[in-house]
Give the backbone structure.
Amino acid sequence: MQVFRKLVCGVCVSLNKHTGGVRTLSTSSHRAQSVMQAWVIDQYGDNSVLRFTTNAAFPVLHYPNEVIIKVQAAGLNPLDVNMRGGYGAATMAMKRDPLNINKSSSEFPLVLGRDVSGVIMECGLDVGYFKPGDEVWAAIPPWKQGSLAEFVVLSANEVAHKPKSLGHTDAVSLPYVAATTWSALVNTGGLNKDNCSKKRILILGGSGGVGTFAIQLLKAWGAHVTVTCSQNAERLVRSLGADDVVDYSSGPVERKLCDVDKFDLVLDNVGGETEKWALTLLKPWSGAKYVTLVTPFLRNTDQLGLCDGMMQTAVTIATKAVKHLSNGVHYRWGFFSPSGSVLDDVSEIVDTGKIRPVVEETFPFSQVPQAMQKVEQGHARGKTVVTIAEDRPE
Ligand SMILES: NC(=O)c1ccc[n+]([C@@H]2O[C@H](COP(=O)([O-])OP(=O)(O)OC[C@H]3O[C@@H](n4cnc5c(N)ncnc54)[C@H](OP(=O)(O)O)[C@@H]3O)[C@@H](O)[C@H]2O)c1
Ligand SMILES: *[C@@H]1O[C@H](CO)[C@@H](O)[C@H](O)[C@H]1NC(C)=O
Ligand SMILES: *[C@@H]1O[C@H](CO)[C@@H](O)[C@H](O)[C@H]1NC(C)=O
């Protein structure tokens, strides 16, 4: 094991030299302290708070089950734009420091970026599933430092081997939306690969990150998939396998959808007004579920503090659950949940060719603000990704 650790250290040093941007600082401690390049924010606000630095703290292993990943590519999500503006700040602070012991500690400088594809650089002593050099991907929980940096530290159970058939820039478009969709459809919606055939699923908002993944996963599992999107996205969602496509930009979808057969599950990526009519599209008294990803959870906890926020949230969900159970359908909130084992399954499906990445635009590391702006504009057709290091063998 000692030999192994020394070997790891050797790898680490050569990588540092290789990237050129990472300097090793000499310290009195035996552990080398270094810095790295990253885009950080020092306060919440608009895009102007994004700051490039060559001086960001190099991640360190705090637990024996952690790994350090050299980031090759990062993916952005609407959550990054929200977090830049302070969304979820109270909840995330609580999650980072649950007992609120260290009142002086600050979340800044904060690194955004929730998707990572890269190479394992160092493993904690308890990590057996990965070794340095493995090509991996992960969805980064919002309370951890993100992937708009040269390196990121994650717990090994959040990480998986990336699909062999994809390069890093394509691969990185999938982890966060895949983990979210899986959590919403499987954990919350009760679907799996064996009980989807003949099920009728409606996806509200099919052209964005979550939608383009959800269509492909459900088709791979044999479901019948109906999608709403604007007209210029119809070709895209059909190419991903959508059976029926309803254009929401040319008049109310609810009118077009009320004539079709009822659904077993609705996945809502749009929120707002949709809840007023979409619940009536479900088969009543058959266990049908309405799963929405657009939840007020973080907003409530930010505005009201964690305790009150949770109360408020619990009240909201209880009211809705009771109300819609009485109509014979279940109303549920779906949430992102980090899981390496889910990503292992997704990796396998991707390598069979049944799911392909949908990358809308790729930006170089120097253009993170432009990438963030792209996500902020909305109207996504798949994902916005950032290349951090060139795809090249180390
Ligand atoms: N709860 C969670 O843990 C969680 C996790 C991930 C995502 N989310 C949320 O889920 C939503 C989707 O995420 P995403 O990553 O897929 O976002 P995204 O990539 O920005 O995609 C959103 C898509 O919805 C389309 N759209 C907007 N209004 C629509 C409407 N009325 N009907 C049909 N389509 C519409 C947009 O295109 P057009 O504007 O051109 O129509 C866009 O393609 C976001 O609100 C996100 O915050 C929640
Ligand atoms: C508290 O925060 C400071 C500044 O971030 C840090 O140096 C210190 O190690 C933290 N202490 C604990 C107990 O986490
Ligand atoms: C799918 O199968 C799982 C596990 O067997 C079950 O718990 C779930 O209720 C099923 N869902 C549907 C919609 O049939």
About this structure: The pocket of 2-acetamido-2-deoxy-beta-D-glucopyranose (ligand 3) is lined by residues 190-192, 195 (CB under 6 Å). The two ends are 23 Å apart (CA to CA). The first helix runs from residue 2 to 19.
